[in-house]
Amino acid sequence: MSPEARLLPGTLDLLILKAVSLGPLHGYGVLLRIQQISANALLIEQGALYPALFRLVRQGLLKTSWGTSDNNRRAKFYELTAAGRARLREETTEWNRSAAAIATALGATPEEA
Amino acid sequence: MTFFSRSRIDREIDEELRIHIQMRADDLEQSGLDRAEAERRARIEFGGELKIKEDTRAAAGIAWLDTLMQDVRFSVRVLRKSPGFAVTAIVTLALGIGANAIVFSVLNAFILRPLNVPDAETLYQLERGKDKEGVQSYPDYRDLRDRNHSFDDLAAYDIALAGLDTGDGNPTRAWVDVVTGNYFDALHLQPFLGRYFHSADEHGVGSAPYAVLTYEFWHAHFNDDPSVIGRVVRINRRPVTILGVTPPDFHGTMLFFGPQMFVPLVHEEAAATNRLNARGSRWLFQVVGHLKPGVTIQQAVADLNAIGADLEKTYPKDDAQMTFVLARPGLYGDYLGPVVQGFLLGLMLLAALILVAACANLGSLFAARAADRAREVALRLALGAGRARIVRQLLTEAVVIALLGGAAGVAVSLVVLRGLSAWQPFARFPIHMAVAPDAKVYVVALLVSLASGLFCGAVPIRQVLRTGPYEIVKAGPIGVTSRRFAVRDLLLVAQLAICAVLVTSSLVAIRGLVRSTHSRFGFDPHDALLLDTDLGMAGYAPNTAAPAQKRILDALGRLAGVESVGYIDQPPLWVGTNTMTVYNDRTTDLRPVNAAGNPAVFHVSPDYFRAAGTRMLSGRSVSWHDDASAPFVAVVNQQFVRKILGSVADPIGAHFKLRGGTRVEVVGVVEDGKYASLTENPLPVMFVSFQQLPSTATWFVLRSARNPQELAGAARTALLSVDAALPVTTETWDSELNSGAVHFGPRVASAALGVLGVMAAMLSVTGIFGLAAYSLSRRTREIGIRIALGANHREVLRAVLGRSVKLLAIGSIAGLVLGLLASRVLAFIVYQATPRDPIVLSGVVVAMALLGLVGTWIPAQRALAVSPLLLMRDE
Fold first, then answer.
1. I want to staple B179 with a disulfide (CB 3.0 to 4.6 A). Which of A1, A35, B152, B183 is the partner?
2. DSSP state of B233
3. Looking at residue B454, what DSSP letter applies?
4. Which of B140, B179, B138 is nearest to B157 (CA)?
5. How far apart are CA B213 and CA B164, in angstroms?
6. Which residue has the higher pLDDT, B373 or B95?
């Protein structure tokens, strides 16, 4: 397994929103989905997941409903609200812009004199 | 967020985390582990479940509530463990908050809340002259009404007691506001039922035979029967038609007094002497009106004064001092307003002081407790609890107690206020007190509870913050360092002083009350029976009333056991006095400015003074020959001689003049008395012959060697034998006087001060008890050692109680001095309120000593029972 990247502060919320935007998920499912879409490159601390989920619900970005999982367990499913979708769009744009800027900055070579 | 959703979210978090671990275990199981191992691994991977739950709960936004609930639950548990402390604290606060809720409700009802009329904020009454008199004459009223530009309209009324006959031929008394036709329109009132009369209905004297009922009267006497509208009833024997009913919350324009019906004054003036054109006769009780929008009080006063100045010029004989001020009508302007306001604000202050005392007490109780719990607090500190958390816990405990105490206090105040609202202190007057608490009162009570809770809780905080866990756990409570209690001592002294003030004032008030029921006021109420009626209620005019009154006097005089019987238009000390303007015999220019004075006037029969027990000092009484055809005569009191006749050597035979120029000869002088109130200054009074100046108002005084109550039945029959349609009331003069308005002020003052005094005493006992118990608990070890070393009882008690006793002495002396100063204020209400009274002084000393004894009894017993052996074993 390749060494896992540390999660940058503040990115967990964005990753959760992204994961859930692909379809309703239960808590454990969110964890798996993030590992899957990051190709196992990101390590999510399980303990940090639930506070983040509850925070996003309180902010009105996620909504919840109880349902049944693939292997027939009762579970709480999270999905995006309209506000959550909008937030995901904004944050994604924002992230791309700053990531590009940082990449450019880090890619700079000494100018020829 | 409610408590239910809190536990719901808790359950949800638990459930979700459990499912998460199950799902992870499912995956691990599929990868080949057995179930138990899979679940174990899943749990380890997940990490600290409790911390995650806590974090999640915080993220869901309920952490503060959770802590609060924990604190509250802990508080309740702790308080349950020491029920004595909890009950003492709650009762103490309930007293303080209950007292404040009651006084504030009354204050709210009489001062803060406007009258129950539409647009009450623009409603004013007129007051005239330097004495700010509310009464006006009808012609003056009409001029002011028609010529001013400042008021929407001006209405006026007089209060009258009328004989009401609803058709069964058995008249009862009803209190009637005799009002101008525009009354309801000027007050912007809509009828609850039927319609009102209007100024267009007035067509001269005797017109507009209508009546409008108040809702309460309609409800009580007509059982809410809507068919009374249009019914004809008889008022003072003359038929009137009931037009309508006023709204339920309308009780006239005065707060204390509720009339039962409203009748146009143009109609009523036909029965008595017509006063509609008598400019000098001021009988309209109150003139009220709404200011026009945008008109200021100053503008209105200037407007009225301009009219007044013109009236003075035009009618110099009748009108003087025609300057005006505006006042709120609810407490009859400047007559009752300042008195009631002063009294209620004084009460509010006292109630606030009681609350402060309660808080001070609770503060030391909490401090004593904090000291007792020092070990517990130290243990919690040592185990890593934050000081902030411990302080918050202590505050929560105090607030829980405060809220419970507040709730209990409000509950008690509700009961008391309900009683007050239904209270009818005078059988004869429809007193109306709507003092039921409203939302404002509850809000104030809640805020006061919270504030006092936080205050009491804050007292021991410093102490807690200073607690060093090591010292206490190691050595137990540290010994007394006396400076630490300076603030607490001051609180107790203040509270004892307040208690002593209240005890002093209530003793002064009670002494005054007792003295006033045993003093002579210019007549002798013992062994006398009063019969009262009003011939006006049976349709008599003053000129036909005197012969009827004479016939009744004859009938009463024939009764067995009656020593003497007299007539008077109204007994002294009943409801104020009527006054008459008189002039010096040499004065020829009979304008009000040249008057010699305004003595009170009573109309009497020849035998009145004998029946009333009023001492004749010189000359004779009026006689049966002093009738309408004889020269006018009067009997006067000593103050009249001093003030109006100028202390002539021999007043008998002296003359003075009445307003119309009639000369009156003084034929007798009687002793001075009290006439309108017990605290009044000496009043000049003249007694005129009822045959020369007749009145329909009628009281008979029967003096008998027998118990006057036994005469009541026979006297009533004798009176009714003259005219069966007269409503009669009989009562002994003693009880009439004691239940009357005269003793009302002192009675209320004594009762209020007494209740507050008892409460303050209870608080003081808890305060002293708290301090004594506290210092005992701090010094138990020391006392044990002293006893072991051979200290006797006196030395032990001095060690434990010395401080309490010293504080008690300081507080009592301070309070006594303040109380003596406060009784100067009381002198306005209570007859001869003087603190220079050995009984008051010794009463206060005994009361305070008793408080000290009760407060220190239990701690003293416990101190004497300290056993050095047990103590040694404890350590």
1. B183
2. E
3. H
4. B179
5. 12
6. B95
CB contacts of B38 in chain A (<8 Å) are: none
**Dihedral pair phi/psi, residue B287, rounded to 5°:** -115, 120
Beta strands in B569-696 (DSSP E): 578-579, 582-584, 600-604, 616-619, 633-637, 655-658, 663-670, 685-689
Please tell me which of the candidates A45, A55, A73 has its beta carbon nearest to residue B22: A73
| Number of Cα atoms under 13 Å in the Cβ half of residue B264 | 26
Give ipTM to 2 decimals. 0.87
Q: Is B666 exposed, middle or buried (0-12, 13-18, 19+ CB in 10 A)?
A: buried
* Residue A111 lies inside a defined structural domain of this protein: no
3-state DSSP of B815-865: HHHHHHHHHHHHCCCCCCCCCCCHHHHHHHHHHHHHHHHHHHHHHHHHHHC
Checking DSSP bridges between strand B210-213 and strand B261-264, what pairing results, if any?
Answer: antiparallel
User: What residues contact residue B388 under an 8 Å CB cut-off, 6+ apart?
Assistant: none
In SS3 terms, B373-436 reads as: CHHHHHHHHHCCCCHHHHHHHHHHHHHHHHHHHHHHHHHHHHHHHHHHHCCCCCCCCCECCCCC
Q: Read off the tokens for B863.
A: 């101190």
Rounded-to-5 percentages of helix, strand, coil across chain A: 55, 15, 30
Note whether residue A112 is domain-resident: no
Residues 6+ apart with CB under 8 A from B312: B319, B320, B322
Set of chain B residues whose Cβ sits within 8 Å of the Cβ of A69: 23
- Pick the more confident residue, B264 or A3: B264
Give the domain extent around A85. 11-106
The tens digit of pLDDT for each residue in B286-339 reads 999 999 999 999 999 999 999 999 999 999 888 888 999 999 888 887 777 787
What is the sign of the dihedral through the CA atoms of B721, B724, B730 and B733? negative
Tokens for B448, please give them. 């006061």
Residue B603: both structure tokens together: 């109309």
Q: What is the pLDDT of residues B574-615, one digit of tens each?
A: 877 888 889 998 888 888 788 899 999 999 999 999 999 999
By CA distance, what is A77's nearest residue in B? B16
Residue A37 token pair: 């879409």
Cα B227–chain centre separation: 38
Is A55 domain-assigned? yes
Please say whether the beta carbons of B709 and B736 come within 8 A: no
Q: Write the residue in B12, B16, B52 that is nearest to A47 by C-beta.
A: B52
CB B304 within 8 Å of CB B324:
yes
pLDDT in tens, B546-566: 999 999 999 999 998 899 999
Cross-strand partners of B303:
none
- Partner-chain contact B59 A58, CB within 8 Å: yes
Neighboring chain B residues of A51 at a CB cutoff of 8 Å: 52, 55-56, 58-59
Judged on CB neighbours under 10 Å (0-12, 13-18, 19+), B224 is exposed
User: Is A47 inside any structural domain?
Assistant: yes
pLDDT, tens digit (0-9, with 9 covering 90-100), for B702-715: 999 888 888 888 99
Asked whether B504 and B819 are in contact (CB, 8 A), the reply is: yes
Looking at residue A68, its amino acid is: T
- Which residues partner with B291 through β-bridges? B151
- Plot region of B737 (φ>0 → left; ψ -120 to 50 → alpha; else → beta): alpha
Q: How far is CA A44 from the centre of its chain?
A: 10
B416: which 2 tokens? Answer: 């008391």
Q: What is the CATH number of the domain that holds A67?
A: 1.10.10.10
CA dihedral B747→B750→B751→B756, nearest 10 degrees, is 160
Whether the predicted pLDDT of B789 surpasses 60: yes
Give the CA-trace dihedral at B71, B77, B82, B87, to 10 degrees: 80
Helix axes B49-59, B35-46, angle to 10 degrees: 50
Least Cα separation, residue B382 to chain A (angstroms): 30
Under 8 Å between Cβ of B621 and B606:
yes
